[in-house]
Write a structure and sequence with these properties.
Layout (H helix, E strand, L loop, with lengths): L2 H5 L3 E6 L3 H16 L3 E2 L8 E6 L4 H17 L4 E6 H5 L1 H4 L7 E3 L7 H9 L9 E3 L13 E3 L4 E5 L1 E2 L10 H5 L3 E2 L2 H13 L4 E5 L14 H8 L7 E4 L9 H9 L6 E7 L3 H7 L5 H14 L4 E8 L6 H12 L5 E6 L17 H25 L4 E11 L2 E6 L4 E5 L8 E9 L7 E5 L1
Helix pairs in contact: 8-9, 9-10, 10-12, 13-14
Length: 443
């Protein structure tokens, strides 16, 4: 089948929900479509193809997915609407029944999107028939590459997919399949291509990236060592790492690296050992505290983001207080707080004691307040210091934004000549309202 002959001249729009991994995969699909002559539709213009990459980490994510699908169908009634991603894998039979949805591809089949769209447009195809392509065991064992660039300066490199953990509240293993990864050689080659394109920062993404090596027998720390040698990439950031997979060896290497930034993101999920056991997490709070202490010993200036879930089934007032007390003693920089969401088919539904929605909301706010205190203190600790900042290309109300090596967001009056550049910058006055950023003085 001649893909270019079928698709050349058509236009497409892309909509992505959820994690950075989804953005990397969407970008790869966009590049593949572009290679066969499909251009991005101009803003405000109708598109021939609409691709919606969905998330299903919570019931809220499902609801956002449904809302987005209905909006896209309404705004682009003549387009071929293709829904992919985790929500498509878990609820494909429901999605394909939505009027206006033409095709649904489950997880592990994103590499087939272009060919399936071409089949759909081919003369032999019945355009009145909807298509559902769920993932099989084979699809959920195959690694599909992905690398994206956002509209600022950074690229997201997919290094791993799937998860072998079985957390009681989570549907991601069902949506994404088993843990698998690309080879170090192939990922280094991807980073080299980013460097050739002028990219300076890469974020390593995946579902459980610390579990890297299931497919190839390699180690995540060796991937990090290899990427550190790629010329032209000045910054790497590591996305979420399970604390039980964060080794001293990795911490020590990042501390001495010239290109891996002092920036960590760790999922705690609960500061109560009782709740961690109900969640089937693979570490106690003592191990988590030890990892944070090790990071701060080796990188005192490091930014540490922490994920927490509140309102898990079984979380009594006393057990939530354990989480609050534990976190109050930890040297994190910011919390990412999520309210527990009931997911069909998960073992968490067997746990007694359901937390009322209002209680979840109150607990969420308590942790948000604690996070704000820590983030304010972290920013203030570096006020007046000079740190390297990578400036983004986008303009926000006459300002350009950037991040220091240790993830402090700073702003400066827009100067197009600075976009994509790294400059020594003094961290200035902090904007207290929601702590959007600190003012910057470029030296």
């Amino acid at each position: 089948m001649d893909l270019r002959a079928i698709l050349k001249g058509k236009t497409a729009l892309f909509f992505t929900l959820g994690c950075k991994l989804n953005f990397a995969e969407t970008s790869t699909i966009a590049q593949e479509l572009n290679s066969v002559g499909v251009e991005k539709a101009p803003e405000g213009a109708p598109a021939d193809i609409c691709i919606i990459n969905t998330c299903s980490v919570t019931s809220v994510a499902d609801r956002k997915g449904r809302t987005l699908i209905h909006r896209v169908v309404r705004e682009h009634p003549d387009a071929v609407v293709v829904v992919i991603g985790c929500y498509a894998q878990l609820k494909g039979k429901e999605i394909v029944k939505i009027p206006g949805v033409d095709m649904v591809l489950g997880a592990g089949r994103k590499s087939e999107v272009v060919s399936k769209i071409a089949e759909y447009f081919s003369e032999e195809n019945d355009l009145s028939r909807q298509h559902l392509f769920s993932a099989t065991r084979e699809h959920l064992h195959r690694f599909e590459e992905g690398c994206s660039s956002d509209d600022r300066t950074r690229h997201f490199l997919k290094v791993q997919d799937g998860c072998n953990y079985a957390c009681s509240y989570c549907t991601i293993p069902k949506a994404r399949g088993v843990s698998r990864n690309g080879s170090i050689a192939s990922l280094v080659a991807s980073a080299e291509r980013v460097a050739l394109d002028g990219g300076k920062e890469i974020v390593l993404t995946g579902v459980n990236i610390g579990d890297f090596g299931r497919s190839t027998g390699e180690r995540f720390v060796d991937l990090v060592r290899a990427l550190d040698q790629v010329e032209g990439i000045e910054r790497y950031r590591i996305s979420s790492l399970e604390p039980d997979l964060l080794s001293d060896e990795l911490i020590d290497f990042v501390a001495s690296s010239h290109s891996f930034m002092p920036h960590w993101h760790l999922p705690l999920q609960s500061g109560s050992d009782t709740i961690l056991r109900l969640m089937r997490r693979r570490y106690p709070t003592a191990l988590f505290a030890d990892r944070l202490q090790r990071i701060k010993e080796r990188m005192p200036n490091a930014f540490i983001g922490v994920d927490v879930i509140v309102g898990m089934r079984g979380e009594t007032d006393e057990l939530f207080q354990e989480t609050l007390d534990f976190l109050s003693q930890q040297p994190f920089s910011q919390l990412h707080v999520f309210s527990y969401s009931e997911r069909s088919g998960t073992d968490a539904l067997k746990i007694n004691h359901v937390v009322a929605p209002q209680v979840k909301k109150e607990r969420n706010q308590l942790l948000q307040d604690l996070s704000q205190q820590h983030l304010t203190n972290f920013y203030k600790a570096f006020q007046g210091e000079v740190r390297p900042v990578l400036w983004e290309r986008s303009e926000v109300e006459g300002m350009m934004l950037g991040f220091t090596d240790n993830y402090i967001r700073v702003a400066h009056p827009y100067d197009a000549s600075l976009a994509g550049q790294i400059t020594p910058t003094r961290v200035g006055a902090i904007q207290e309202e929601e702590l959007g950023y600190a003012l910057a003085e470029i030296l």
